[in-house]
Amino acid sequence: MAHVLSTPNDGIPRVLATPDAFREAAEALAAGQGPLAIDTERASGFRYDDRAFLVQVRRRGVGTFLIDPEGNRPEFTAALAPVLNRQDWILHAAASDLPSLAWLGLYPGTLFDTELAGRLAGFDHVNLAAMTELLFDVRLAKGHGAEDWSQRPLPEDWLSYAALDVELLLELGDTMAEILDNQGKLDWASQEFEYIRTTHSEITGPADATWRSVRGISSLHRPEQLAIARELWMSREAIAVEEDRAVSRILPNKVLVEIARTVPRTNRELTQVKGFRRSASRFWMEIIQRALDSDPRTWPKRERPTRGLPSRQAWASEYPESFERYSTARELLDDLSADLAIPTENILKPSVLRTVVWSATAGREIRSPLEVPDALRAHQARSWQVELTSPILTETLF
Fold first, then answer.
1. For labeling, which of 22, 165, 226, 319 is most exposed (least CB within 10 Å)?
2. What is the pTM of this model?
């Protein structure tokens, strides 16, 4: 039976939240040895953006540090970046943490992602708790990942949870590297880790948001619907920024789109929109009316999507021979996935497979087998993926 680790072995570290404490942590971490295990706790379900409200760092020889950058972010960066940047980092599910770390001016020199390592190694379950239990017979006490990490002070059991996220991460990285090496997959994993690192290396802040990027907006066709959606989004954005609140707590995207779709003319009609909170009807009705009263010549028009791949249904019905080749290629990749114990989507991104097959068949943009590897590379397939999938695609398409 697995041993339950409910608190860090060395106790719960104190939270460091001042410039002086940041500098002390940096000096201590600089004296440690080997790679850095790093994690973050964020509050995107409560706050406007996905910034880190707690950064956990562990290094051999010096232990774990819990650092609160909020309120002193420039000082945090000035103290920690010279020590952490260009070093070897170990993270679990790195793509979820790297953006918020980049906003703090922190960038790894090399990266090892234990979650992705688990996928490539063929693990059935790749969450941190499952992997540590499988490999170390240690069950981590979990349960606070979705909390509001922007609140202060942070409860002691939350801090324990945060520290446990890096408690065994260094050992997990070592073990997964050994497993991947024994499976002959370590070089493949290294290419994947480097791809993740480089795709986050130029990030300096959150991406600019636009009202057209709201999921579901493309389903709105009429100009008055789009005018309402734009006005709702702009008002919601202003509130979210001013109050530092998650937009989902002000007006969820699904509700925003549904309001625009129905074009309500009265409070009664507005309150009948599924998911809408009646207490705010008067405010949002004023926003809707403002959009409808504006000059129709200023209303946005529907953006026609650029011509690309058809839907699966259209592809199968209108281009059956092309779709049959796609289906064959997918089946062969699934067989390869089973042989290698790597998920198909990690061997080749599904969108890349669809694009290459379409380009070589109905699109006629790939005209010979020699062009397949370059086409894969053009869509950011890594060398190991190109090596494994080019023969399958060549055999299927030509």
1. 319
2. 0.94
